[in-house]
């Protein structure tokens, strides 16, 4: 398949490029400098000239707190940008997969959120991502929306991604005990993104590693166990104590109603994925 991967310098994009290349795809991986997804004309031009067969949109404005002070930048990418890609994909008949977020839910459900639950995004980033989902569907009814959450991977800069290195260096870490989610290894998500492009069903999917989810503290404890780090480095903290500008759901565990019914294997358990990640695989 000739596959476009947007936001090519990002964590999930890099995993997706690597995976698609490994299965023999012709990968066109474009960074923000190569293709700004907020620039509609540039997007349409690129699609008409390259005639991609599938598009995996990994580009996003992912600064959740910064979105509160710069909503227009956030919406330009996470809403308008997604619409531009959806439209341009429809224009050339390409499959279109775009990543959304567990943050579309408000966190009041401490169980698993499925596609039967009504989104109720709280912060600017979350609202823009949901708007992106809706615009994608309107611009191109074949759009495939993939909600995921708590993603970590090689080259990532978020808490889940850098935790192992910090623990190995003996650095103390604030471990939030009252936020729960379903961790997702970028490499596993990448494989599923491509499988969904192949499946070509216009749906909203929830994609995470399997298991019952955990808290950030639980994730950090598992990381300590896997690399033999001192659990004493973990300093319990409440989410509120971090005083972050953007609201975040206190629980955003995702489960999918469709994946298995469509013949897709559940992604492996998050603990097994974390073990591979921490051992550099
Ligand atoms: N990380 C998580 O825990 C998580 C959870 C749920 C959902 N998601 C979603 O998963 C997807 C991938 O996230 P990620 O963690 O891989 O993010 P990331 O590492 O921050 O990568 C996002 C990439 O998008 C690029 N980008 C920003 N604006 C762009 C534009 N206008 N045009 C083209 N590219 C642009 C960025 O480039 P620059 O660096 O040059 O700005 C960056 O390389 C996103 O849709 C995100 O919302 C992530």
State the CATH architecture.
Answer: 3-Layer(aba) Sandwich
Q: What is the CA-based Rg, rounded? A: 18 Å
Q: Name the ligand types.
A: NADP nicotinamide-adenine-dinucleotide phosphate
- Low-confidence runs: none
Number of helices: 9
Give the helices and strands as they follow along the chain. Answer: EHEHEHHEEHEEHEEEHEEHEEH
Alpha-beta classification: alpha/beta
The rounded distance between the terminal residues' Cα atoms is 25 Å
Q: Kindly give the count of domains.
A: 1
- According to DSSP, the number of beta strands is 14
- On the 0-100 scale, what is the average pLDDT? 97
Tell me the fraction of residues in β-strands, as a range: 15-25%
Question: What is the CATH class designation?
Answer: Alpha Beta
Which key terms come to mind for this protein?
281 residues; alpha/beta; Rossmann fold; two-stranded parallel ribbon; globular; binds NADP nicotinamide-adenine-dinucleotide phosphate
Topology at a glance:
Blueprint: E1 2-6, H1 11-22, E2 26-30, H2 40-50, E3 54-57, H3 66-69, H4 71-92, E4 95-101, E5 112-113, H5 124-139, E6 144-148, E7 151-152, H6 159-168, E8 173-176, E9 180-181, E10 184-185, H7 186-199, E11 204-206, E12 214-215, H8 216-227, E13 234-237, E14 253-254, H9 270-278
Parallel strand pairs: 1-2, 1-3, 3-4, 4-6, 5-14, 6-11, 7-10, 8-13
Antiparallel strand pairs: 9-12
Helix pairs in contact: 1-7, 2-4, 4-5, 6-8, 8-9
The site of NADP nicotinamide-adenine-dinucleotide phosphate (NAP) has 26 residues, from α1, α4 and β4.
């Amino acid at each position: 398949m000739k596959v476009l991967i947007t936001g090519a310098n990002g964590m999930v994009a890099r995993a997706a490029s690597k995976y698609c290349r490994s299965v023999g795809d012709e990968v066109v991986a474009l960074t923000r400098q190569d293709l700004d997804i907020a620039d509609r004309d540039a997007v349409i031009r690129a699609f008409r000239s390259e005639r991609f067969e599938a598009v995996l949109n990994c580009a996003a404005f992912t600064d959740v707190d910064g979105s509160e002070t710069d909503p227009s930048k956030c919406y330009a990418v996470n809403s308008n940008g997604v619409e531009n890609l959806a439209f341009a994909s429809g224009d050339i008949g390409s499959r279109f997969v775009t990543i959304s977020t567990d943050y579309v839910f408000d966190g009041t459900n401490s169980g698993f959120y499925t596609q039967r639950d009504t989104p109720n995004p709280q912060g600017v980033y979350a609202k823009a991502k949901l708007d992106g989902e809706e615009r994608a569907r309107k611009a191109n009814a074949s759009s495939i929306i993939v909600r995921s959450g708590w993603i970590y991977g090689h080259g990532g800069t978020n808490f889940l991604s850098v935790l192992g290195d910090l623990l190995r260096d003996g650095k103390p870490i604030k471990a939030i005990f009252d936020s729960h989610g379903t961790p997702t290894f970028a490499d596993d998500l990448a494989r599923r993104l491509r499988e969904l492009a192949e499946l070509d069903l216009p749906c909203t999917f929830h994609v995470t590693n399997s298991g019952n989810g955990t808290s950030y503290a639980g994730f950090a404890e598992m990381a300590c166990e896997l690399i033999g780090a001192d659990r004493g480095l973990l300093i319990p903290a409440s989410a509120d104590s971090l005083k972050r500008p953007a609201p975040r759901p206190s629980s955003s565990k995702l489960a999918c109603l469709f994946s298995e019914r469509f013949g897709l294997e559940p992604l492996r358990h998050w603990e097994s994925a974390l073990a591979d990640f921490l051992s550099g695989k």
